[in-house]
Amino acid sequence: MGDGLRYIGVAERRARLALRHRLAGSARAAGPAEVAESLVALHGTDPATVYLAVGARLTDPAKTVAETERALYEDRALVRMHGMRHTVFVFPVGLTAVVHASTGLAVAARERAALVKDMAKAGAPDAAWLAEVEQSALAALARRGQATAAELAEDEPRLREQFVYAAGKSYEGVHTVSTRLLRVLGVEGKVVRGRPLGSWTSSQFRWAVAPEHPELDVAGAQTELLRRWLAVCGPATEADLKWWTGWRVTDVRRALAAIGARAVSLDEGTGYVVDGDVDPVAEPTEPWAALLPGLDPTAMGWQRREWYLAPELWPSLFDRSGNVGPTVWWNGRVVGGWAQRADGEIAWRLLEDLGGVERQAAEAAISWEAERLRGWVGAARVTPRFRTPLERELSA
Length: 396
What we know:
This protein is of the alpha+beta class. It has 2 domains: about 1-30 and about 215-395, no CATH class; about 95-210, no CATH class. It is built from 14 helices and 14 strands. A 4-stranded antiparallel beta sheet has the order 11-12-13-14. α5 packs antiparallel against α8, α5 (about 95-120) crosses α9 and α9 crosses α11 (about 250-260). The chain is globular and about 70 Å long. InterPro entries: AlkZ-like. It comes from Streptomyces curacoi. This is Winged helix DNA-binding domain-containing protein.
């Protein structure tokens, strides 16, 4: 490209994605913990996404639900907590301290200050009262093991206190102390989401005391998180890294320097890989297809997505807030979308004209993946939390 940097083109970026994101058939994983370790984080805003993202990457998806539930709620190998961009993710337990220090602390300080400020404006009790309620609630949660907010309020009735938020504004509302306080405690790393009240698709969670972890240096934690992510998702631009982490650009640049990241040339400009990852990566030996859920960590992995998702497909596959819906992949790029219908059928549609022999191969592979998905999902019905135009149309 004329700048002396090694050029990494679209084909190689797709090859890296196929192998490192466990999507090519030969790269699939044995269990949920292995998937999470490979991807660094699984999007957890929509509970079903975690299971669907894992199932799409397992060699044998038949035990997806049972094994993922065991990893989350029994072995605690995986932890659901707030992370980058104030979003709920599922992380390997060994990464929780890194995420907490690198991204959670700054958000937590803002969240607690906002809660105290909002309560003061509403004439609610002060910060000392809130601290007393917090300690009582945490003690009750420790005794119970896991509990809903309503169950905790049985032990600590002050959690039921309400206060008016944004009085006089068009968005005025009434908040309950339990709702806001548990959110703050979650971001602070004191509590985590526990087992849901319903099935694996339920968004009604119990809470549990967070597992203990060491308090890490913020800069060191940011360096480690960026190193882990770049090893999986590199090459990536500064803009990609800033978007994914939610950090300031100065933090991104400092972490890049700390890990000795290597600059490479991409179609959109300068990108970065971890030291030792500059050499070419060969494409998978076999063609592959995948059906990934809405908010999948691969589809949402980069800010610039043109190299794997054509802009003309975005209106069909994204909602108005920029959340991606269920996607159909073929050899490293998004070629369509899918949805589950009321009878359990997995309906899908190609949005790209593949043409000729390639289309036949793609359709056969996608059909196989759709049946594979239908088989392990069984009687469960999955409706994405953020619905997109194509998903709505296909599910009707």
